[in-house]
Amino acid sequence: METKATRRRGRPPRSILNSETIVRTARDLMETNGENFTMTMLAKRLGVAVSSLYNHVESRDEIFAKISDDVVRGIDVRPLNRLARRMDRVAGGAQDPAETASAWRTAVEKWARSYYRAFAAQPSVVATLALTPVAEAPQTLVMYEAVTRGFLAAGWPEDQVLRVVETLESFLLGTAIDAAAPSDIYYPGEQKDEFPVMSRLYAARAHLSGPEAAEEALDVGLTSIMDGLEGRLRETLSAA
Q1: CA–CA distance from 197 to each of 177, 187, 191, 192 (Å)?
Q2: pLDDT in tens, the chain (240 residues)
Q3: 20 to 30 A Cα–Cα from 139, which one of 48, 119, 184, 198?
Q4: For residues 72 and 177, what is the distance between their CA atoms, to the nearest angstrom?
């Protein structure tokens, strides 16, 4: 009498494909291919047919949006949320322009540093995510809503809020990319005798790694930008 073969228990030979796996693999693929990776490349990396990907995502743009949301989850907007609540409580009352501008600066600097760290951890996605519309990335939109609400609560005019946010982001994203730069990026090499100034300046900071140099640049740049923006907000509040 024939007996049926007993099915072996255990995990299936291939992990179940889902949106999270696709996004995680796409992020890894972007480390080597940047935004030039294709759905065919992604399917090959996952060991599935291209058509299988479309059961979970509609397009490559949707993958970019999901990656954007993943990165943004590491950005801390709580300081700006607290600032907005604080400003709401004192709305209509007398506010000291210098104190308000200082509180805004403290909140923004905390947000900015977490923003930098989130993107510095994966600089390969910066160029792509900088061009991803927020309408396609709900978590990213949540972040911007909190940031802009904090700016408005502190007293920034509506027509200036996004301009200031863009100014900060341009610097932060550029610095995040610098974190991945090689430590000898400014070294003239065999041409050092022809470029003595660059050689001397490079030698003065040769002890810094790429990330350390980027952190130093972050400190200098963010302090300088915030000095100007804090003063501008203080003047705006004083004139109101």
Answers
A1: 25, 11, 12, 9
A2: 444 444 445 444 445 788 889 988 988 888 777 767 789 999 999 999 999 999 999 888 888 888 888 888 899 999 999 999 998 887 655 679 999 999 999 999 999 999 999 998 888 778 777 777 888 888 999 999 999 999 999 999 999 999 999 999 999 999 998 888 888 888 899 999 999 999 999 898 888 777 788 888 999 999 999 999 999 999 999 997
A3: 48
A4: 16
Q: Which residue has the tokens 């003047």?
A: 235
> Using CA atoms, how far apart are residues 17 and 21, in angstroms rounded to an integer?
6
Give which of 77, 233, 238 is closest to 157, Cα–Cα: 233
d(CA 113, CA 123): 15
Identify which of 38, 48, 49, 45 has the alpha carbon closest to the alpha carbon of residue 24. Answer: 45
Q: How far apart are CA 118 and CA 96, in angstroms?
A: 33
Q: Which CATH number fits domain 75-239: 1.10.357.10, 3.30.360.10, 3.30.450.20, 3.40.50.1000?
A: 1.10.357.10
